[in-house]
Amino acid sequence: MVDTRKTRALTGFRFRLHEIIFEADTRAGRTFDVTLLLLIFLSVGTVMLESVAPIRDAYGPLLRALEWAFTILFTIEYLLRLYCVHSPGHYARSFFGIVDLLAILPTYLSLFVSGTQSLQIIRALRLLRVFRVLKLAQYVGGARVLRSAIQASRYKITIFLITVLNVAGIAGALMYLIEGEENGFANIPVGVYWAIVTMTTVGYGDIAPMTPLGQALASILMIMGYGIIAVPTGIVSAEIARADAKAKVSTQACLVCSHEGHDPDAVHCKYCGARL
């Protein structure tokens, strides 16, 4: 059990900093988060603009200066997040902690490996904080429902995918035997690739059956494709309906581990046990 004295020990400047950075209930916290989102938007836009050759040729130095400015600001923010929580390692290993770190690493890596600055586009993941910033608790609850539904569906979907792969393997082998190398089906893996593309209704058109029997098999797979798309959707939808009643959550962040997504009437953090 977590020592609740840790929660009480977070006072003074660190407590105030935690409220500003991790909470959106106060005016200062909301202003901080909205400003952060704006900087993320501008940073992602800068990365996109730099990938356009004419713009890069004309404004390359300015864009790189902006990238470094954003990186320095995000680095300071990341260090402050680690400073104002009781367990910096716990936050660093959390989803948002990893995203925050990955958002600043590409720029520093670009000093040693050219081109890695393009990976800064991962900063777009930080925009997920908008749900907490705008206090859209119903969307946070919706995310929890979706995650629970996917977890509950994983065994059924796994069995379904194994069945689909078996069908693709059999169809690919049959198509290899029916069409042969002269019609582009050079081996069974190529046939399996064609079967997957056909069943998923993607239809690249790079390989197509030429014989009547091959076209008949292709027609069967095309019709099966509609059912294949519908089955996992139905499985997940059923689980979402079951989990929807448990969707309500608050957006309060734990003072110790910084996790969110607690029940509205929760007194203790369900992740670490600290008092909220």
CATH architecture type of the largest domain: Up-down Bundle
Order of helices and strands: HHHHHHHHHH
Q: What share of the residues lie within helices?
A: 55-70%
- What is the C-level CATH assignment of the largest domain? Mainly Alpha
What does this protein look like?
It is a single chain. This protein has helices at residues 5-9, 12-22, 27-50, 53-83, 88-93, 95-109, 130-133, 137-179, 188-199, 212-243. Helices cover 66% and strands 0% of the residues. α2 crosses α3. The protein is mostly helical. The protein folds into 2 domains: 5-135, Four Helix Bundle (Hemerythrin (Met), subunit A) (Up-down Bundle); 143-246, Helix Hairpins (Orthogonal Bundle), CATH 1.10.287.70. Mean pLDDT is 81; it is low at 1-8.
Quick synopsis:
66% of the residues lie in helices and 0% in strands.
Key features of this structure:
276 residues; mainly alpha; Four Helix Bundle (Hemerythrin (Met), subunit A); Helix Hairpins; 2 domains; 66% helix; disordered N terminus
Record the SSE blueprint.
Layout: H1 5-9, H2 12-22, H3 27-50, H4 53-83, H5 88-93, H6 95-109, H7 130-133, H8 137-179, H9 188-199, H10 212-243
